[in-house]
Design brief:
mainly alpha, 53% helix, 369 residues, two-stranded antiparallel ribbon
């Protein structure tokens, strides 16, 4: 085992050197050092001195919409330990990449840009240890080696870290987001009863949330409310590239319950933010150092149209499972069916016209169709 880890470490150093060469970074200097038989460790240390990075921070999501904070952070501890499960930045980065590629576009519970920005700058405004642990727990189930004992135990450790530290009544936005992610973790493992309790807690906690005047808070809160409202109706259980493709599941219809009504008084995401989300790249990421292709993510348009679809699905589910409702008429079923057809026909061509669209069909778009 020790030899395997040493080989993996050496391979990782080699990959870093090759990446620098492919990006035309310090090519003459690297070649000179290699010719002088310098070790890979010394070359990588020269490329990225220890003082230039934080061991508690990831390399950052490839499709992050933020580069740096536009406002000064004050009153923040300079070295927040986001998770006690591992301090290996490569593990954290890989799990974040998986989460933002395969979970976030389908279940957008927060702003990726604001999360990454808070993570990098040690701010607990849009990031917290329990949210980090919850995301990593879910991402472990997306790992290419998810069935191995090592990755399975890592996922359990992240989940245990969330459950041991979470305080559902603290009113923090990131706590609500972590509860929603735990719902997805347990849904994917078939623990429906426990998953349902997490979703119920997340939904009810929205009424006791601590509001903030910080820039971006209302935008992130809107993402969380729309995401949780969608979870009450719809949940995708498995990423299509890991296992056999499964159809999306309507959570409320699986559990024969009326979705909890969430009244959203927040303004809709402004067009400029939606446009930025649409243009941000989505990466077909699966493995460490994966040379994955990328396309425009169309996340703003997808989330906007998904919200409309969830409204229809919520009304249909309420009609079917409301015990106090009147008998259902055939005309009412046809009316709801007409709404589905109308929604499909009015989809913007960028996500609705799969057959004639020259761009790659995105998995989070296909999950709607």
């Amino acid at each position: 085992m020790k030899q395997i880890k040493e080989l993996e470490a050496k391979d990782h150093l080699t990959q870093q050197i090759l990446r620098a060469l492919s990006n035309d970074q310090h090519v003459p200097e690297i070649l000179h050092r290699l010719q002088n038989s310098e070790t890979h460790e010394s070359i990588v240390e020269w490329l990225a001195p220890p003082d230039s990075y934080d061991v508690h921070s990831p390399a950052g999501s490839q499709n992050s919409t933020f580069e740096a904070s536009s406002h000064e952070m004050t009153g923040i501890s300079p070295n927040i330990l986001w998770t006690s499960v591992t301090t290996d930045p490569n593990i954290l980065d890989h799990l974040f990449q998986l989460y933002f590629a395969w979970v976030h576009p389908v279940h957008t519970l927060f702003s990726e840009g604001h999360f990454v920005n808070s993570f990098r700058h040690n701010s607990k405004l849009f990031c917290s240890p329990i949210l980090v642990n919850a995301m990593c727990a879910l991402a472990c189930h997306l790992h290419a080696n998810a069935d191995t004992d090592e990755i399975e135990q890592l996922g359990l450790s992240f989940s245990d870290a969330v459950r041991s530290e979470i305080e559902p009544d603290d009113g923090c936005l990131t706590t609500i987001q972590a509860l929603a992610v735990l719902f997805l973790v347990d849904s994917g493992q078939g623990h429906g009863l426990r998953a349902s309790s997490y979703l119920t807690l997340a939904t009810r906690s929205l009424s006791n949330i601590k509001m903030s005047q910080e820039d971006g808070f209302l935008e992130v809160l809107g993402n969380t409310m729309r995401g949780i409202r969608g979870l009450n109706v719809y949940v995708r259980l498995r990423p299509y590239w890991l296992r056999k493709l499964t159809r999306p599941r309507e959570w409320a219809q699986m559990t024969f319950q009326v979705p909890i009504f969430l009244r959203e008084d927040l303004p809709h995401t402004v067009d400029s933010i939606d446009n930025e989300l649409d243009e941000a790249k989505w990466y077909f990421y699966r493995f460490v150092d994966d040379q994955c292709p990328a396309w425009s993510g169309l996340l703003g348009t997808t989330n906007r149209e998904k919200a409309k679809l969830m409204d229809i699905s919520k009304d249909v589910t309420t009609m079917l499972y409301d015990p106090s409702g009147p008998p259902i008429k055939a005309s009412e079923i046809l009316q709801q069916y007409t709404r589905y057809v109308s929604w499909r026909e009015r989809l913007p061509g960028s996500i609705g016209d799969i057959e004639n669209n020259n761009s790659q069909a995105l998995p989070h778009v296909l999950s709607l169709l």
